[in-house]
Amino acid sequence: MSEPKSFTLDVPGAVLHYDVRESDSTEPPLLLIGSPMDAVGFTTLAGHFADRTVVTYDPRAAGRSRRTDGAARTTPDEHADDLHRLIDAVGGGPVDIFASSGGAVNGLVLAARHPEQVRTLVAHEPPATQVLPDRAAALAAVTDINETYLKSGMGPAMAKFIMLVSHQGEIPADFPQWPVDPTQFGLPTEDDGTRDDALLGQNMIDCNYYEHDFDALRAAPARIVVAVGEKTGAALPRRTGEIVAERIGQRPVIFPGDHGAFMGGEYGMPPGEPDAFAAKLREVLAG
Fold first, then answer.
1. Which Pfam family, just one, is annotated for this protein (predicted)?
2. All structural domains of the chain
């Protein structure tokens, strides 16, 4: 695989930054996408696909990509339109996509709206919280995290976020009232005054509240595979992934590890299981 070449793409309301690792393969490009995680998070996974052209990008308002319209939040529809334009920029598709977390939500929207651009979409643990039987409690918790961020800053809000996504089973109705100490997660208690965190300030509301077009997904000519982690347990990302799979008429495919298993230590986080994860992804993409 060649060294990544970086490019910019002007889209309505933003300038996107993306990277292309070129190869001589005749296979379609492989897009690796997250949200709000940027291209850095896919560095290790990209290295496992040196035999293919791999495209990564920073979603608008994350990493190097910046909004130019002054909007405070970004919807999955906007992200899907950005992906549509990005695919046009790298050849028009159809492409293969591995999409994780909020990126999986955006990938599903893309597949519903522009299925002709997608050959295979592997949607890994999409937080499609609207599908949960306990969605009222889960969405109340999501709203509380966003409000905590706007009121008190990153530390207290991120502590609540960690509690939410690691909770096993249905979300209790009193979740927003749970006392959470940021220091137990090594997070700051002081508010630095910034409010530009793409996860806590944007994705928490627009991603989790999004209502997917399952009729369009079932009818799409694109191959859609919903993936869940074998070690995620009964946490929210796996629960939503299982229901999304059911809603589009399939069973989820079990991948090694947990929600971040494809990572190899990016952002200073403990490494997941990237070798096993990449091998499973290659198997799934091969059909």
1. Abhydrolase_1
2. 5-128+210-286 (3.40.50.1820), 135-205 (no CATH)
Q: Of 62, 89, 53, 108, nearest to 223 (Cα)?
A: 108
Residue found by looking up tokens 């109340």 in the block: 140
Please answer whether residues 29 and 117 qualify as being in contact, where contact means their C-beta atoms are separated by less than 8 angstroms: no
> Does residue 60 contact residue 130 with C-beta atoms inside 8 Å?
no
Largest CA distance in the chain: 55
Listing DSSP states for 22-70 in one string gives --S--SPPEEEE-SS--GGGGHHHHHTTTTS-EEEEEPTTSTT-EESS-
Q: Is 190 helix (H, G, I), strand (E, B) or coil?
A: coil
Strand 5-11 versus strand 30-33 pairing type? unpaired
Number of C-beta neighbours around residue 99 at 10 A:
26
pLDDT in tens, the chain (287 residues): 678 999 999 999 999 999 999 999 999 999 999 999 999 999 999 999 999 999 999 999 999 999 999 887 899 999 999 999 999 999 999 999 999 999 999 999 999 999 999 999 999 999 999 999 999 999 999 999 999 999 999 999 999 999 999 999 999 988 867 778 999 999 999 999 999 899 998 888 999 999 999 999 999 999 999 999 999 999 999 999 999 999 999 999 999 999 999 999 999 999 999 999 999 999 999 98
Q: Is the dihedral of CA 82, 207, 75, 158 positive or negative?
A: negative
Q: Model pTM?
A: 0.96
